[in-house]
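Quick review question:
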C-alpha cells in the first residue's frame, strides 16, 4: 500500500490524499485551497477561464494522473469526507467516469450550494454511503464513521487493505452538538490502526474562546434576553450546529428568528436526514426574502419553494416594528447594508460574529456596523479539535504511526504524539 498526500501536509485546506494498493487507486477529498503559495487567501476567481493543464501547472489542481476530465481514467474512486469547499471544491474537474462517494448530508449540501455559488461542484456519478456501513472498492474495504464537526454529516474513513488499517480523521471535534460521537470513539476506539492521518487545524491557534456549542448558546441567551434592539448573527447557513445553537437561544428567550431564503432552503434540503433541524414553517421562525436569493431559486426551477415560504414571510416593515424581539441570521453584503439602512435607529442593536475570526480579519465589517450604533461581539467555537482532544484520540487509538495532515503546524506533532512521520506534498510513502 502506498500513501501520497498531494496537498495538505503543511497547510489547512485543499486536502487531497491518494491511497494506492496493488489493484486500486482512491483519492480522499479534493478540496479548493484556502491559501495561495504566498500564504494569502486563495481567490477562487483564479479558476475562471483556466484549463485543467493550466490549473495543474499553477498548482491549483494537485498533479494526480488519471484523475481529471480529458485523460484516461486511472483512479477507481474519490471519497469526500464532508461538504466544506476545502475538501470538495475541485470536484468539477474530475473524470466523470470516476464514482464519487459521500454521505447523504454532504450530497444535499453540495447540491444546494451549487445553486447559489459560482464555484460549482457539478456532481456526477455520486454514490452515497451510510455511516458505519462498510463498502468495497476492489481490494479496499472502507468504513465511514460519523464525526462531530461543523460540516454536516462529516465522516472519518477506516480503510483496510493489504493487511493494513488506515484511519483518515477528516475534520472533527469533540465539543459540538454531536460531541457524544467523539466520546464514544474515545471509549470504544478502533483497534489495530497502523496509520492515523490526523488533522491539526487548531494547532498554533490556542484555545477556543467558548468551550463548546452549549457555551455559545448560553452566551447568546444572556445577550438576547437583555437586548433592547434587533440582533444580527453572522454565521454560515451551512454550519448546522450553529444554526441550531442560535435557534435554541432564540427559543429560550422567546424571540423570533428571521432567516433568509438561502438558509431556509438549506434546512429544507436536510429535513429528511434529520427531523430535528429548525424549519421555515416552525412558529418562531420567519423568512425574509432578499431579491437575489429569490431570483436564484426561481431561475433554478425552485419557484415552488419560494411560494411555500410565503406563509412564513416577514417584510422589512414588520422587522422594523418588532426589532426588540427579532434575531436575524445575516450575511454582510450590499443587500444586508440596504436592509439595515431601512430599519431606522439601531442604537444598542447587537452584531454577533459567529465564525472563524480569520474571515473577519480578511474583511473587517465591524466599523461600518458600529457606525450604525450596532454593538459588535464575537461568539464562536471552532469546528476542529483542540490539542487536548487530539492527544486524547491518539492515546485511545494508539496507532503505530501518526501522519500530520490539514495543519500549518506539522512540526509540533512529534512533541505531542509518539511515532510521527511527517511527509511533504507529493511524497510517496510505502505503508
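Suggested answer, residue by residue:
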Amino acid at each position: 500500500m502506498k500513501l501520497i498526500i498531494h496537498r495538505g501536509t503543511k497547510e489547512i485546506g485543499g486536502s487531497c490524499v491518494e491511497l494506492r494498493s496493488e489493484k486500486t487507486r482512491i483519492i480522499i477529498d479534493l478540496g479548493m485551497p484556502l491559501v495561495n503559495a504566498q500564504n494569502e487567501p486563495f481567490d477562487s476567481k483564479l479558476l475562471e477561464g483556466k484549463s485543467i493543464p493550466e490549473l495543474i501547472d499553477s498548482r491549483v489542481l494537485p498533479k494526480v494522473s488519471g484523475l481529471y476530465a480529458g485523460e484516461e481514467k486511472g483512479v477507481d474512486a474519490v471519497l469526500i469526507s464532508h461538504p466544506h469547499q476545502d475538501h470538495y471544491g475541485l470536484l468539477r474537474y474530475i473524470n466523470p467516469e470516476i464514482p464519487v462517494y459521500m454521505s447523504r448530508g454532504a450530497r444535499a449540501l453540495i447540491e444546494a450550494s451549487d445553486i447559489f455559488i459560482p464555484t460549482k461542484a457539478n456532481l456526477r456519478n455520486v454514490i452515497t454511503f451510510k455511516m458505519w456501513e462498510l463498502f468495497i472498492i476492489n481490494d479496499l474495504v472502507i468504513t465511514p464513521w460519523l464525526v462531530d464537526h461543523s460540516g454536516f454529516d462529516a465522516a472519518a474513513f477506516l480503510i483496510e487493505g493489504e493487511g493494513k488499517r488506515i484511519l483518515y480523521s477528516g475534520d472533527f471535534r469533540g465539543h459540538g452538538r454531536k460531541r457524544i460521537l467523539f466520546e464514544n470513539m474515545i471509549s470504544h476506539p478502533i483497534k489495530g490502526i497502523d496509520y492515523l492521518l490526523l488533522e491539526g487545524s487548531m494547532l498554533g491557534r490556542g484555545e477556543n474562546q467558548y468551550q463548546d456549542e452549549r457555551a455559545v448558546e448560553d452566551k447568546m441567551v444572556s445577550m438576547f434576553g437583555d437586548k433592547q434592539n434587533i440582533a444580527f448573527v453572522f454565521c454560515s447557513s451551512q454550519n448546522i450546529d450553529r444554526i441550531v445553537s442560535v435557534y435554541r437561544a432564540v427559543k429560550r428567550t422567546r424571540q423570533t428568528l428571521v432567516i433568509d431564503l438561502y438558509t431556509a432552503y438549506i434546512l429544507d434540503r436536510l429535513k429528511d436526514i434529520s427531523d430535528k433541524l429548525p424549519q421555515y414553517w416552525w412558529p418562531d421562525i420567519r423568512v425574509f426574502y432578499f431579491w437575489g436569493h429569490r431570483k436564484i431559486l426561481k431561475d433554478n426551477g425552485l419557484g415552488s419553494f419560494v411560494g411555500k415560504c410565503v406563509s412564513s414571510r416577514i417584510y422589512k416593515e414588520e422587522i422594523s416594528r418588532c426589532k426588540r424581539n427579532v434575531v436575524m441570521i445575516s450575511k454582510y453584503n450590499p443587500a444586508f447594508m440596504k436592509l439595515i439602512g431601512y430599519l431606522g435607529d439601531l442604537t444598542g442593536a447587537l452584531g454577533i460574529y459567529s465564525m472563524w475570526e480569520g474571515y473577519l480579519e480578511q474583511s473587517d465589517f465591524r466599523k461600518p456596523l458600529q457606525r450604525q450604533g450596532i454593538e459588535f461581539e464575537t461568539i464562536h467555537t471552532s469546528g476542529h479539535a483542540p490539542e487536548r482532544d487530539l492527544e486524547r484520540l491518539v492515546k485511545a487509538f494508539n496507532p503505530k504511526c501518526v501522519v500530520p495532515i490539514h495543519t500549518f503546524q506539522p512540526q509540533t506533532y512529534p512533541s505531542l504524539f509518539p511515532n510521527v512521520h511527517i511527509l511533504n506534498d507529493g511524497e510517496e510513502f510505502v505503508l
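Why it works: The longest helix spans residues 213-226. DSSP finds 15 helices and 19 strands in the chain.
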